[in-house]
Amino acid sequence: MCVRLVFRCCLALVVGLLAIVPSVAFDKVSESVFRVNMDRMDDLLGLGRNHDCRVLILDGRKPKVVSDAHITLTRKWVEAGGVLWVAGDGLESAITRGIATFRLERFDYKKASTGKRGGELVVKGASPRLVIADHPLSANVTQLYLFPRYKFDGTVNAQPLVEMTDTQGNHGLVLAAIPTGKGLLVLDGTARKGRLLFGRLPGFDPDRPNSLKQDGGRWNSYDWDKLTANAVAYAQPPY
What we know:
Blueprint: H1 2-20, E1 27-30, E2 33-35, E3 55-58, H2 68-79, E4 83-87, H3 94-97, E5 105-106, E6 120-123, E7 130-132, E8 143-146, E9 150-151, E10 159-165, E11 171-180, E12 183-188, E13 212-213, E14 219-220, H4 224-234
Parallel strand pairs: 2-3, 3-4, 4-12
Antiparallel strand pairs: 1-2, 5-9, 6-8, 7-10, 10-11, 11-12, 13-14
């Protein structure tokens, strides 16, 4: 009798602990910002139960298997108020394509100073060729150092965040947001770790994307963190 009672108590304790353990284990980037681990795609199945996640980054290699359930539950999370931030190889993911339709083209941007590919400092109001648009996600964002890789020109319903035009007239909508229900799908065309479309980009460090190495070895990401903080503020929990 005592043995059965102890067993039942232990079982109840285990069930209780499971109930309070987070249902997903995304890689945490910062407060309320997480990244999808492409080796644990099933974390997406519990996305709606994780109220700590307001911004979810999808930028890794394409997973081998994506089911309709992964796509549907991610889309419902965005529609309910979440922000899905998609960059790099994530732009070609079936999950992203299942949430919104958008145009994706390579962007062979040339730096004004060298005429070659590389990063460019974008300062709001400094040049009509390099524009940080007015948007809730770009509030108080005045300086960004970007390595453009893709552009989304011609995407229906895309709200511009950053547009870049080089001295040769090549234009690219490099950062954009597509409203999806109460949430947003953020399209990020800047370079990321993994396959680089044009080979190596001078000055690009895959571990510090959209950052500039300055004298003394310090890396400056300018106002990039404000973008993600604004995305967190934009999200509308509970989902």
